[in-house]
Design brief:
This protein has 205 residues and is of the alpha+beta class. The protein is built from 8 helices and 5 strands; from the N terminus they run E-E-E-E-E-H-H-H-H-H-H-H-H. The protein has 3 domains: 59 residues, Nucleic acid-binding proteins (OB fold (Dihydrolipoamide Acetyltransferase, E2P), Beta Barrel), CATH 2.40.50.140; 70 residues, 5' to 3' exonuclease, C-terminal subdomain (DNA polymerase, domain 1, Orthogonal Bundle), CATH 1.10.150; 53 residues, no CATH class. A 5-stranded antiparallel beta sheet has the order 3-2-1-4-5, with helices on one face. Helix 6 packs antiparallel against helix 7 and helix 6 packs across helix 8. Belongs to the RuvA family.
Length: 205
Amino acid sequence: MITYVKGQLSLIEDASITLETGGIGYEILCATPYNFQDYLNREIKIHTYHYIREDQQILFGFRKKEDKQLFAQLLNVSGIGPKGALAILGTVSVPEFVSAIEQEDDKYLTKFPGVGKKTARQMILDLKGKLIVWLPDEQNEDTIFYQEELTSKEKRERIEDALEALKALGYTEKEIKLARTELQKTNEGSVDDYVRQGLQILMKS
């Protein structure tokens, strides 16, 4: 099994990134590949889930170990496949998702792409009590902090990168316009921060 890949980020596409190490390029599917824009042509470590079936082998990638672990848990839920699990992780943070499971908030869970009421109830049934270790938003070595002051140009560029990631998830131009307006009012952050804030804005709209 391939548990992580550490190498140079050489390519970012709508659904995947490519890490080059030892002369080999690994295609890794990610929930929001453009979150890694700041690391293009730099070395980065990606936690991976090696998905193996008779007719395919796929690497799914995650910046944080707990995202990978939650992905694995979601695959054990009836009605949730890799695509659905990845869509959930691209929409919400792990603590937020665990909180919804523990509170049995099926209305919140049905906001995720492809999740109906039956699947939401199944997630609660299968996962409640198993994920509470992730409720505290603990910091670890993989957490990235952005404390520098951004120029207006840098902030605008990061917001635009985040909006490209939202477009890749299927949001319309009208929704993107709404997200852009709201994100311009938010505090400074990374591309990842803006993607998460944008998703929260669109889920509430």
